[in-house]
Design brief:
The protein has about 130 residues and is an alpha+beta fold. It has helices at about 5-20, 30-45, 85-90, 110-115, and strands at about 25, 45-55, 60-65, 70-75, 80, 100-105, 110, 120-129.
Length: about 130
């Protein structure tokens, strides 16, 4: 398995383990971006807590709640202006107000709802519902 995009690999493993009904998954390697995305998913109630294991490359043990229907990265990483966020929401999520899109903005990595509140655009990273 090629590790060209660690975030894509982490989210696809998360979705696969959710679909087969597992209660935990180990993600490796780990980056700051992956940890921030998982913090957001935890805060929004899609995954349970996670533990970081201190080994070479890092491992995250994530406890699953069974609440993810689908999640993945958005490739290519499109830039969106504040006014275009709603259009992206229609494109990547099944319904308005259902799920979330994660963006990298000048204010840090956040959900599309937070980006709308702060009236900022950014680069699309991932979606989850």
């Amino acid at each position: 398995m090629a590790l060209n995009d660690p975030l894509a690999n982490a989210l696809s493993m998360l979705a696969q383990h959710e679909k087969i009904g597992r209660t935990e998954v180990v993600i490796k390697p780990v980056s700051k971006t992956i940890k921030i995305v998982f913090d957001i998913l935890n805060k929004e109630g899609y995954i349970g807590s996670y533990e970081e294991e201190k080994v070479k490359g890092g491992h995250l043990k994530i406890y699953l709640l069974g609440k993810i229907n689908d999640c993945g990265v958005i490739k290519p990483r499109f830039s969106v202006r504040f006014a275009e966020i709603e259009k992206s929401e229609k494109q990547y999520l099944p319904a308005k107000g259902f799920g979330l899109i994660i963006l990298s903005t000048p204010f840090g990595i956040m959900t599309h709802k937070e980006a709308i509140e702060k009236k900022t655009g950014g680069v699309l990273l991932a979606y989850c519902y």
